[in-house]
Prior knowledge:
With 414 residues, the protein is an alpha+beta fold. The chain contains 16 helices and 13 strands.
Amino acid sequence: MSGARAILHVDMDAFFASVEVREDPRLRGLPVLVGGAGRRGVVAAASYEARKFGCRSAQPMAVALRLCPHAVVVAPRHELYAEVSRAVFAVFERFSPLVEGLSIDEAFIDLAGTERLWGPPRRAAEALQAAVLAETALTCSVGIAGVKFLAKIASGMHKPNGLTEIAAGSELEFLATLPIGELWGVGPRTQEKLARRGVATVGDLRRFGEAALVEMFGAHGLHMHRLSLGIDERAVVPDRAAKSLGHEDTYAVDVVGVPELRRCLLSQATRVADRLVAQGLRARCVCLKIRDGEFVTETRQCTLPRATDDHREIHGAACRLLEAVDTDGRGFRLTGVSVSQFESPQAEQQQLDLLAPASEPPPRSAALQAVLSAVRERHGHQALFPAEAGSERRPGTTGAITHSRPSEPPKRRR
Ligand code: TTP
Ligand code: MG
Ligand code: MG
């Protein structure tokens, strides 16, 4: 895969259950269920021994115990799992600075530039599995591919303790027989609609064609068609990126529908623009983060033709990124907008001066953004907020506001 991008997706095996087995070696080799033991308890994690009986995450405990009556039930210890997760992520971060946590037990790792240190991707992946095992006594499964979505599919193919590489050049062959539901962002509704048109596999999707997909699903259709060709430009966005700033909101009630989502993004784009102005920065890269009620988190990013600190441009970019998300039938608990690739306006102005010696005054929109930001800075955020943002979703009324880079990997549903 030399020359191509190499992305790892790493996911711990039966994470909560494996931690419990590590803590109590008497459980080794036994079917273990972590979860609430009460009548309404749910299985959080099932050891691979328990899975042979059909037990799995999110199953009612009563059902799991019917399938496997001799299973050992262990009450969850979330603080312990969070601590182990931090140890696992510390190992990941030794392999590359580009680590993007997806949940408590999984991450993407972009191996760009690490070849001299770790060798080719497969060797790096083996070293990573060995380091995780040596330092945490736990196994993980790794997928290797040139793009994110293929790496994620690959990591799940040979669990537990699996290592699966989708080599450059074999993507189309691999995708041909894959059910479309395995593609990220292809939900049950989309599957149903496509099934009615005879599309079941990713190969079918490719043959169905870009035009037909765009006609049926708009920008999301285009996105799916690109995935069917193995194309996925999504970058690995590191959790601790020093050079980005953003805002995200978690909503008490899931947000449904594009108009409402766009209003949420406007509030976030505005706050991001204010901070850019406050710091005298403009950014070229805009990133959308969105998490649905099932805790599936997606990020999309794009690069603008020129750096900006204008909330309308940032909002516009975020809305275009939103078009590539399957919003059909999904409620969203979190949205966030962040920006990166900063330029200082002075540097940009100097570049413009070089290009056009008779320099023009700064565009009106830049001056306007500076004034709006200054007013909000003095009088608080509600003072001058774009009317389209809608009062019910103004910042401060939507739940906790957090910065976009959590210092810990995001947690899965418990
Ligand atoms: P997963 O990685 O989805 O599952 P897993 O690690 O248990 O098993 P696998 O080997 O298939 O990866 O989730 C990680 C942890 O998140 C899991 O151990 C427990 C928790 N979790 C829940 O609490 N509820 C859920 O519904 C799921 C899917 C996971
Ligand atoms: Mg796992
Ligand atoms: Mg996982």
